[in-house]
Amino acid sequence: MASLDHAAFEYGKWSKSEEEIIKMADNFIELKGDNYKKTRDFPYLSDGTSRLSPYLAIGSISAKYLMVKARAANNNKLSSGSEGITTYINELCWRDFYRNILVAFPHVSKNRPFKRETEKLEWNESPENFDRWCNGKTGFPIVDAAMMQMNTTGWMHNRLRMITAMFLTKDLLINWRMGESYFMSKLIDGDLAANNGGWQWSASTGTDSQPYFRIFNPLLQSQKFDPDGTFIRKWIPELSNIKDKKIIHEPSKHLSAKEFSKLSYPKPICDHAASRIKTIAAFKKLSMRA
């Protein structure tokens, strides 16, 4: 079983009054909204996203308020004008979209996949691999750093939620329900609709229109969205002294066995290319049964 007794959560840092939350929202939209599309996918940027999700989750601020404010800042336009604000509006729409999915397809709130045909997908039962994923010990730096961020702070950057979820379901082929449940046990902004929708999107059991062979390459994701390894160094102490941005993303490949052993960092839990082939085969097998 995965351990739930990590270092104390930093939940207290999220505590804000209603006035503070509104000011936080207004400042983000007015001062940072225009750059949102350019900054939102980079977890090392502390102000790349609004970080309003915890307050949306408990109703301290509404999506309607944010929509009205964003539209006003965009010259009362929803789909044109500022590229950044338009992107932010789209993200608010996705949040409501997943809530509507719960209403229209209530079976997804009952631990069932949106795509019923994926119910019989043969998942890999591996408590050890699941535990390593939960505790940030997969040997894939970007995945481990993301898990450590959540385990420590109770929050995870959205790009990293996609990377970690897809890694669990596509690289390790572990049931999305296990990851969904673990996230809800940790996230300060845990929301049934958004969390379920995100996990099923990543697992290709949900509303994603793309085929099941959409599988993120964790190395490429790491190189693209944390190019200098800034985020990785922050959350993985074992790798904090690696300055070479080529090595930081895949230390086991670029260091000698002796050098790597000194890091006390685990070797990769799997081979991404091989795992991708196995996952696609599992989905193909499922489609052949239909």
Main structural class: mainly alpha
The Rg value, from CA coordinates, equals 20 Å
Describe the sheet with the most strands: none
CATH superfamily of the largest domain: DNA Cyclobutane Dipyrimidine Photolyase, subunit A, domain 3
CATH class of the largest domain: Mainly Alpha
Q: What percent of the residues sit in helical stretches (DSSP H or I)?
A: 40-55%
Oligomer: single chain
The N- to C-terminal Cα distance equals 34 Å
Strand content: under 5%
Tally of helical runs:
15
Topology order in helix (H) and strand (E) letters: HHHHHHHHHHHHHHH
Say what the CATH topology of the largest domain is: DNA Cyclobutane Dipyrimidine Photolyase, subunit A, domain 3
What average pLDDT do the residues reach? 93
- Which runs of at least 5 residues are low in confidence (pLDDT < 50)? 1-8
Taken together, the total number of domains comes to 2
Number of strands: 0
Write the topology of this structure:
Layout: H1 18-32, H2 36-39, H3 53-57, H4 63-73, H5 83-104, H6 127-134, H7 141-153, H8 158-171, H9 176-186, H10 192-203, H11 218-225, H12 230-235, H13 251-254, H14 257-261, H15 272-289
Keywords:
mainly alpha, 15 helices, FAD binding, chromophore, Cryptochrome-1, Serine Threonine Protein Phosphatase 5, Tetratricopeptide repeat, 54% helix, FAD, DNA Cyclobutane Dipyrimidine Photolyase, subunit A, domain 3
